Amino acid sequence: MRSKYFNFVILIIFYFQVSYANNKQKIVTLAPNLTEIVFALDLGDQLVGNTLICDYPIKAKSIFKVGQYNDPNLEKILTSGATVVLATKGNPITKLNKLKSYGIKIIEVNPERAEDLPVIIKEVAKKLGVEKKGEIIAKRIQEAMDSLENKPKKSNSFLFALQFNPIYSVSEETWLGGLFLKSGLKNIVGKSVIKYPIISEEYLIKNRPDIILVGSVEGKNKKESLTLQTGFIKKIYGNDIDKIKVIIVPDDVLVRPGPRIIEGIKFIESL
Predict the structure, then answer these.
(1) pTM (2 d.p.)
(2) In 24-130, where does DSSP find H-type helix?
(3) How far apart are the C-alpha atoms of 212 and 227, rounded to whole Å?
(4) Architecture of domain 149-270
């Protein structure tokens, strides 16, 4: 009798474990910062798909790939069994609408201002059922932003060169530009109507910045990247390059609106 009762209990436990596994949300992220948010919320075990450029944390690289950020594969997303898709600007709207028609929940994350950064973390966390965890991360981000804003204001001018050929930068009318505003640094792009404008060499010469921020060169270390990027900038400014401080920006932490933005804020403080 005891053996039968014991077996019955085990069967019930197994049933609820299977039911829980089947009902547990399955998440697909369509941008690197969204992948980072999911892992920061301790939901990595529920992540069943992400994009080819999702590379942090290291576990993100081994997650099933559903295609490119700007061209995700619908069939792969459906194959993953996704019940929730985290999306952002740049993801094709027609494909997101198609996923909605299949009953998949779409959570869109589109920060416009620096102040939106802690807000989006809390909103995503709430929608994914881990509100308290989101509040903790959001508080840390808010504290980092407050610290940046309360420090003595910097007066140097800068250009953040997101890429060269052509030269793309970032205006003050973005969440990233807003972070620099809090530091007091003067963005030579200013309040451009175009949030990520192409900057001409003529404009750069006329508005020479004190600092130019650049990314590392793929396949090169920091020192090699600095040499290569400085060489490119010298073609624009000639001998005036000596009047400009060229700085390599840490990979990804300053351009991904997610939990690692705290590291990006510390970098801005160091300038």
Answers:
(1) 0.89
(2) 32-40, 74-79, 93-101, 116-127
(3) 13
(4) 3-Layer(aba) Sandwich (3.40)
